[in-house]
Amino acid sequence: MASMRKLAGLLFVVLLVLIPGVPGFAKTTITFWHDWGGEGGEVIGSLVNAFNKSQQDVEVKVVLTTSLGQKLMAAVAGGAAPDVVLLDRYTTNEFAANGALTRLDDLIKGDKLLQPSTFFPATWREANWRGAQYGIPTQTDSRVLLFLKSVLEEAGISAENPPDTWDELRQASVKLTRRQADGKLTRAGYVPTWGNISAKDYIWQNGGELLNPELTKVVWDSQAAVEAIQWVVEFADFYGGLGAIDAFGGQVDWSIGGPLGPMLKGQVAILYEGSWTLGEVLRNFPDIYQNDLGAGLPPLKVKRATLSGGHGLVIPAGTPAARVKAALEFIRYFVSPETQVRFALGTGVIPANVQAAVNKQLVQDPVRRVFIQAMEFAHIRPPHPAYPSIEGYLWDAWWRSLRHEAAVQAALEESARKAQQVLDRYNKHYGIIK
Q1: Which of 79, 133, 210, 283 has the smallest number of CB atoms closer than 10 Å to its CB?
Q2: What percent of the chain has pLDDT over 90?
Q3: pLDDT tens-place string over residues 356-397
Q4: Are residues 69 and 167 in the same domain?
Q5: Which CATH number fits the domain that encloses residue 148?
Q6: Domain contains 401
């Protein structure tokens, strides 16, 4: 009888291990790829560990993966893909167009958290391909005007009401610029070609676009675009042209403070830079960060606009149903307000979750708050697989115009013509046009 009781007890333990839904049931293990090194990778690791400890159904195995995009496509083709991936949202459309990702629409239908209203609109759109959702945004970024309050005040410009429009930015630069007796720059005001800004930002701010809404026509040769780039060219000429700007850049101290180094050293008064630059200033120049660093929204012309990027969580195509379910549980955890706040505090990113982004722990920082406010004006690069292949034509027109090698309109028209040929090839390949 005793032996029978022991056998029954053993069978009960086995059943606890094998029956779904019963404590002790074997967890579903999923593999999670990301390519974040350094402190960001450590924060992600801690969040994953917290998730694994918080429940008994899913175990997430983290794999730090270099050259992630290339390896992901190969893994999907070879039937050996991970179950969830932290992917640059900008590339989501390319993977989706090539059948490498799981479409999420039916899987998240009715889910209260995984809905567009949870996230900044630009972040949700960037993870979409031809009306279908393939990714859930995790974090984002924006670009704003950064400056030292003391430098503006010394020039008679209110740091509490910094330059807010294109015209004000140009006028402020006249007051802020310093030159030697021979005319060489010793301090620039705002340099329109420095920082994390390019032709597309100015085109957006002047009311233009890069592609039409259907993503079938290149439109960066519009009148709005021509006027925008012409303004940049004339602004650069105020400093003596691109050659003079480059010569001054060669004398600037870029060795400290990362991209903000020249501003911290007083060699340029205003820079247009991204939210990711704040971490180095906060770590290495805390007094400046707390007492002298100021921020202003993207300058207004026809409208305000900032480029916004970031990452999203995707599920590769071919993932078994059980692991898809587990991956979605992990995704819900990662984009929940609580986790998003922890992610932001640990890395300095802007949460994609709007509720998390306006958490008082984040918006109490006046500089960070401006970056978060700028998300209201966020624009994304055209979500089309062809865009990485055609953006170079826009850059070429930008530099040719600035070097006065071609008139702005002619440069933009030629670049748009070349880009259109590439876009048409892609659209025919994907069946968007015949």
Answers
A1: 79
A2: 91
A3: 999 999 999 999 999 999 999 999 999 999 999 999 999 999
A4: no
A5: 3.40.190.10
A6: no
Instruction: Give pLDDT, residue 17.
Output: 45
Asked if 216 and 423 count as a contact pair (C-beta separation under 8 A), the reply is yes
Distance from C-alpha of 61 to C-alpha of 83, rounded to nearest angstrom:
10
- Non-local (6+) Cβ contacts of 388 within 8 A are 94
Asked whether the whole model's pTM tops 0.90, one would answer yes
| In-domain check, residue 420 | no
Instruction: Give the count of beta carbons closer than 10 Å to the beta carbon of residue 17.
Output: 11
Rounded-to-integer distance, Cα 143 and Cα 270, Å: 13
Q: What's the number of domains the chain is made of? A: 2
Q: Which amino acid is at 323?
A: R
What mean pLDDT comes out for the span 94-104? 98
Beta bridge partners of 270: 147, 190
Q: Given 306, 329, 363, which residue is the final one in a domain?
A: 306
Q: Give the integer Cα–Cα distance in Å for 57 and 323.
A: 11
Is residue 163 one of the residues assigned to a domain?
yes
* Displacement of CA 197 from its chain's centroid (Å): 13
Q: How many CA atoms lie within 13 A of 8 on its CB side?
A: 5
- For residues 122 and 33, membership in a common domain is answered with yes
The encoded tokens of residue 419 equal: 């880009």
In a domain, 419, yes or no: no
Give mean pLDDT, residues 59-67. Answer: 98
Contact criterion met (CB below 8 Å) for 120 and 69:
no
Average pLDDT over residues 33-54: 97
Assess whether 162 and 302 both reside in one domain: yes
* Domain end residue (candidates: 331, 357, 379): 379
Instruction: State whether 263 and 182 are in the same domain.
Output: yes
Please state which of the ranges 67-76, 253-262, 307-316, 388-397 shows the lowest mean pLDDT. Answer: 253-262
Q: Which residue has the higher pLDDT, 21 or 340?
A: 340
Range of the domain at 281: 143-206+221-306
